[in-house]
Design goal:
alpha+beta; Maltose phosphorylase, domain 3
Amino acid sequence: MRPPPAPPLLERAWIAPAGVALLWTLALGGWSPTPQDGIDFVRFYQPYQHLLRESVLRGEIPWWNPYSSLGRPFVADLQVAALYPSTLLVLALGPWAGWIAGTWAHGVVGAEGFRRLARWAGASPPSALGAAAAYLFSGPALARMQEGEINYVYALCFVPWVLWLSAGLGQAPTRRAWAALACVFALQLWCGHPQIFWFSAVGSGLFTSGLLASPPWPAAGLRWVRTELLLVSASLASLGLLGFALLPLLELAAQSNRAQPNLAFSGAFAMGGPQWMSLLWPSGGAFGINWEYNIFTGLTVAAAGLVALCRLREPAMRAAAAMAAGAAILAAGPATVVFSLLYRILPGMSSFRVPARAAALVTVALILGAAAFAGRPQGGRSRLAVMGLLAAAFAGFVAFALGFAHSAAGLGTQAGLCVVAALGWWLWTGERAPRSGILRVLGRGVLPAALASELVLSLHGMKELYVFQTEFPLETVVVGAVRPPGAARSVAPERVCVDSTVFRENAGMIYHVASVVGYESLSLGRVWDYLHRAIGGDPSHPYSTIPDGHIYAAAPGLHAFSLEESLPIGGSELFLDRHPDPRAYLVPRMRVVADSQAAISAMAAGADFHREALVEAPYAVGLRPDADRPAGTSRISGFGLNDVDLEVESPGRALLVVAEAWYPGWRAEVRGVPVACVPVNAWMRGIEVPAGPSHVHLHFHQGGLAAGLLLSAAAALGVGLIGWGGRRPAGPIRPADDPGAP
C-alpha cells in the first residue's frame, strides 16, 4: 500500500523538517542547562575548537597539538572534526554560535531523512513528521547532545538516510542510489565517530536482510547477495572518499594506546537490565541512566512500535525488526553467547568498545514501527495489543518504582501517560474516526499531546541529570602561578600536571600551557604507557580516554616531564618548581634497548636518562655520539604548533634530546641538512648533532595526508562517474509493502 498523499506544506522538501530541527535546537540551547554545560563540550569540544579557530584565524593549521598529553597530532584525530564542513561555522561564528547553526543544519538533515524513511514504511505525512521529531528528541540524540557529544549526534542524523537509501538498493538498485549511499556513509564517518559508521553499516545489512526475506527463496537469496555486495562496496567507496582523513587517523591509531583486540575490551559497557528501561522511563530524579545507555523512546512510541514490529509479513516492519534484534544482541554484549561468536566473525567488531551504542538502532526501529502503525487505520487486535502493552507497562512501572523508592508524583505521571497514550492510539487509529467537530479535534490531538508530554519530561529529566562542573575559576590561578605577572614568558609553553577538577585536561589549548594529561579517545601509546608504568599503574585499564588519577600525585617525582607546576587530586597547594628539568638537553652517551617498553622499564628503575639516552635498537643504527666528550648546551629559541627551533653548542657529536612527544611525522634539520628524528627515552625526540654550534629545526609533517588526498580524488572521480552515468529512478523510493515494488 502506498502512503497517503501529503498536504503540500508537509511534502515540500525540508520546510517542515526545518521547523522540527529549529524546535529541537531551541529546546537544547534555549533552556538551561544547555549542551554548553555538558562534560564533553566543556572538556573536549570547547578547547579543541578554540585552538583550531585561533590558529586558523592567524593563518596557521594546527597539525600538531603541543598543549595536551605532552603533544599529539591534532588534525589526524578524526574526532576533532577539524576538516568537517560544519567546523567552518565554528571558525566564522565561534564555538557556541557555530554549535547552534551546525546543530540546526544537522537536525534538518536528520528530520528529513527520518521523514523519508517513515513515508517509505507507509506512514502518513503527519505521522512521518512526528516520527522525525521523536527521533531527534529520543535518548540517543538528546542525551548525547545534552552531554556535549556534538559530532556524535551529527553522525546519528545520517542514520535514517543510510537506511532509506539501503532500502532503495534492496528494492530497485540504481547507480545513483549507490553513489548517494557512498556519499552519506562518507559524511557520517567524517563527523568523527567511526563506531556510528560501523553500526550503521551493520544495521543497513540487517535492515535489508529483513526486507528481502520473503519467498520465493532462491530469488530472495540472489537479491540479498546483490544488495549486500552493493552495501559493502558503498561503504568501501566511502572510505576511499575520506582517504585524506582516514590515512592520518590510521597512523595515529597505530601509535596510540588503543588496546589489542580482546573480547573484554569489545564487550565493555554493555546494556544491563535497568538500562533497557530507559526505552520507556525518562531519565532524571531517582532513575538516572548514563548517556551511553539512554535509548528513550517513550511509552507512546514503544507500545505501538513493538506491535508494529511483530507484523513480519510487512517487508518494512520485517526489516526494522531484523535490525532491532541484531542491534539488541550487540548492545547486550557478553550477556549473550552470540556476542562472542560475532566478535570472531563480524568485521570491525573487535575494534570498538561500548556495544551499548548500537542500541540506538533499536530506538530507530521502534520509532519507525510506531510511525507505520499511526499511518493507517488499525484492526481491533492491533489496537488491543497496544492497550495491553501500555497496561503491562503501567504494572511494570509500579513494581519498578517501588523497588527504586520512586516518588508518588513520578508514578502518577507515568500512570497518567499510560492512560493518555492508550486513549490517543485508540482515537488516532480508529477506522471510523470522526471527521468533524470536537471529537475530531480530540481524536487528532490526544496522541500528539501524549508524545509531546513524554518528550518534554524526557528533556527536563536529561537536563536535570546531565549537569556537570562547568566553571573552573582556579584555571586562571594555575596559569598565573606558573606565569607570574611581569615575568618573562617561556619560549616553550609551561608544563603543568594539575588535578582535572581544578584545571581541565585540555585547558592548556585555551591558556597556551602544556598539560601532561589529556581528554581524548586516542593518546599516544608511548606517552600513555610511560605515564602509567612510571607510577606502578596499569596502562590497559578500560577508561582509555583519561589516564589514572594517581599521576597527579606522582608527577612531581617524575623528572622526565620537566614539570613547572603540579597539584594532586584533593590537594590544596600547588607544587611549583622554578627550576624544572630542561625541555631540551645534550647527551654524549646512549644505551641501546630492545623497544619502548624496555626503555620505560629502565626509566622506572631509575636509569639516569639525562646522562645516557635510551635508544631503541631499530633506531640506533648510524648513531655514534662521542661518549668521551662532556655534554654541551642547548636552548629552545622558537616554539610553534608545528615547529621547534633550537640553538646547540656541543664539544663533540652528541644526541639532542627534546622532552616533547615523538611521532613519526617529526622531521629534523641540523645546519639546514635533514637528519633523522628518532624516539629516545621511550617517548622523547632525539636528534644527533655534530661538534660545534648548530641550529636545529624540527618540523611536523602529517603522514598519510598526500596519499590520502590522492585516494580521495580517485574515489571521488570513480563515485562521480558511476553516479553520473546511472539512470535516475522513475520516482521516489516506493514503500516496501507496495505490490508494485520488486
